[in-house]
Amino acid sequence: MQSTIIFVLLCCAFGAALAHPNPEDLTMKPTPPPQYPLNLQGGGGGAKGDGFGFNVGGRQNVWTSDNGRHEIDLTGRYGQHLGGPYGNSPASYDLGGVYRFRF
Q: Looking at residue 35, what is its pLDDT?
């Protein structure tokens, strides 16, 4: 009985020694920041006899600081109304920028 208890304790000590990580395993490599693809959105619709309106917009990150707290995005949008009692509207274009600061 005493030899069984000593054997079990030795097995537990040996298993604990193998399960302990090496010092080089304690440091993790930093994960790279996520790369977001171009964000596109769109929509459209209309009622019978009223024509069809639609718009498409997009947003793209163009600069990020080294620490990831500052970002600059460019945005753009195109919209137009086609048909209906007043005909086609002139195209509408928008271009802008977004500055983002993360606390």
A: 72
